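Sequence in, structure out.
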Amino acid sequence: MSDRPSPTAAESGEPVSPTAVRVLVLNSGSSSVKYQLLDMRDGTRLAVGLVERIGEGTSLLRHTTRTTGETRERTDTFADHDAALKAMAEELAVDGLGLDSPELAAIGHRVVHGGRTFTEPTVVDAEVLAEIERLIPVAPLHNPANLTGIRTAMMLRPDLPQVAIFDTAFHTTMPEAAARYAIDVATADEHRIRRYGFHGTSHAYVSRTTAELLGKAPEEVNVIVLHLGNGASASAVRGGRCVDTSMGLTPLEGLVMGTRSGDVDPAVIFHLERVAKMSTDEIDTLLNKKSGLIGLCGDNDMREIDRRIVEGDERARLALDIYIHRLKKYIGAYYAVLGRVDAVAFTAGVGENSAPVREAAIRGLEELGLAVDGELNAVRGGEPRLISPPYARVAVAVVPTDEELEIATQTYALVGKGGA
């Protein structure tokens, strides 16, 4: 008996119903599921929710219906993702938005690692599942959880297209000069060692939205995107295609982050093994969970770091200085890679909300045509906006990211409705 899932509508060639205008977006973590239900006629969020602490005793489901603004919370014992997603379906059904609705066109899944195989949104079948599973060694914390969410959703709606959107896909356009590490080629190829990059859905959305903000097509614009959250990454986007990005084989490489070190001399690992007698797991924990801002000053919340700096805390000041120094290096490096830069776009939690970080990152780069207007930078808002003065040669923008909308848009386009 074949273990291949029942064919989806997309696999069997059946057209998606004209009334199917909704996409459910799932982001499955190891012990959580985030979800959003969107109406693709205008991108409206019909429902947003989160299930936390799956398999950890008492779980919490928080569900908000955007049409009424009502938020419901439910505590229960969700032993696995199957139970969690069934509970999600029940909450959606209460609002008349159940998974059995003929208006549901597809389910879009965030998948962290697609390797070199998946360069675009992909309808999930048995072969796709197998390849995502083969990629677990390069994404051991994320791909297993992503797989669990997909398999559960396929059981709940085996007739519905399930679409995988890969974090790495946007970066597969990097040239080999940017993607390869300078190590033995045979070893690298055998073990899939190369720079993949992450946060791809965010970089895709922000670079395209930045072009729209400038009144141009993505193909006409070169953008440096700075995705600054607890995880942080930069990308160089030429004409809508990524040509370099700061994260590598894993999300550890690149910028200073909330708890990750970013770039570090690889010999530090050997030194810690030999001198500090640390195990591989201990070093992994150090670099991924006890480094970055939290390692430097004990806080990974930029608001708290700013508060401490105002009070004269030197550790907090040094942490921010290191963070900004690394950020400037990447802005300069990607300026050199692109040759011409039309815009620098800040996004994600810190990028969207920390005016001091944006100002500090651009300060001193006037010779590159970059500048920030203090009044514009101080404005808070949820819409894309320019914060550079009119005379600046290079635009500086704040573009709130919307990874869920990007996943839904790519999913909807793949199942045949996006270009209709």
